[in-house]
Fold each of these.
Amino acid sequence: MADLAKEKATKVAAKKPCRKPVKKRLPRCRYTKEEMAAIFARFKEQRPEPKGELFHVNPYTLVVAVALSAQATDIGVNKATRHLFAVADTPEKMLALGEDKVRDYIKTIGLYKTKAKNVMALSQKIIDDFGGEVPNDRELLTTLPGVGRKTANVVVSMAFGQPTIAVDTHVFRIGNRMGMAPGKTPDDVEAILEKAIPEEYLYHAHHWLILHGRYTCKARSPECENCIIADICKAKEKTCSVPAAIIPIEEQVIPGM
Ligand code: SF4
């Protein structure tokens, strides 16, 4: 009897079609290709060359700087890293310096004890797993202690010139508020934006969105009357549909980068 049941179960299992992994269906961007192109053309006209502010001298020091910048100001991080990177600009030198001294260099930065630990651990891993070189790969970067997806995106974009969308609080808010990327998680927002933003604008797209969120489409009350894309925007909260004139801003740094 038991053998019969076993045989039946084996037959059923054999007939079962093998299931492909279900691909997550993401919400769509609410803007047409033409609207997206118009939005980013205006962002580009307004801020032709957005730049990062975090001091670094090579990909390794960029990883360390971005990891230190979580919940800290860029100015504060730069003050500490200028001295730190003068004596340790490679993972080998950082390990030779030792955790106590690293902690001393960065003690003005919030969460410095945990961050010093992470700097030592990520330096060790870069040596052990990647031959002392920062990997030019987003997934591999996220295996480093203290490096999340946002940090990895910033690093591959700034150090290796790959277009990526690092989703911070501003990008997440704008994506959802405008309906440009209505995603429940930063990863969803990232995936929707990567698909919806015209390729020619992809490299600077997250810089423009961060700056737009910081200075115009603010969290509490968006300044729609100062917004250069007010006529295209489909946000429910929008209070004005007349776009502001575009005044080019030559030099503007992006916090956290
Ligand atoms: S119109 Fe208002 S809500 Fe829309 S993007 Fe501009 S500031 Fe944000």
Amino acid sequence: MGPPEGVSRLEWLRHRRWLGKISRGAERRGPWWAEILSGVALSYPGCCYVEVGVALGSTINVVAPCCREVHGCDVSEAHALPRGARFWHMNSDDFFARYDGAAPQLVFIDGGHTYDQVKRDYENAARILAPGGTIALHATSGRQRYDSRPGRRAADTPEVSRP
Ligand SMILES: C[S@@+](CC[C@H](N)C(=O)[O-])C[C@H]1O[C@@H](n2cnc3c(N)ncnc32)[C@H](O)[C@@H]1O
């Protein structure tokens, strides 16, 4: 099976390689973050899940079956969203400003990786979060591989190391 329309072959191959990697040796590597998020989602009855930055959907597709309501946001087009999920095709600032779903019990922030963007996403997520909810942050190591400019695909963005 080839890449979906709008996804470059390179991006698709990276995605397939990643899925292959996480599906091998689960007993040695410990839980993958999507499995941890699924466990957190299951701890909330009828969980509402928000993912900022869904890319090719590898995480949202794992977590969604554990939730009653699912929202995904990305500046790029979505390709393989779980059935019933609502996709918000816009940047996360606009998403949080317009959000009209249930108060989420779990928010996964994995969109634009600049410090300022992540800080805003965190503050906005905290504003809409249900009482006792959880905010998860990805890629906190300081390496920036994705940027926040609308229309830029993840595979086009440069990898920038911390100076
Ligand atoms: C690391 S990928 C997301 C991976 C996905 N969460 C997963 O686990 O499979 C980052 C995504 O964030 C998107 N993105 C970058 N800046 C954004 C922003 N300001 N608002 C929303 N999405 C953004 C990119 O288009 C890219 O698809």
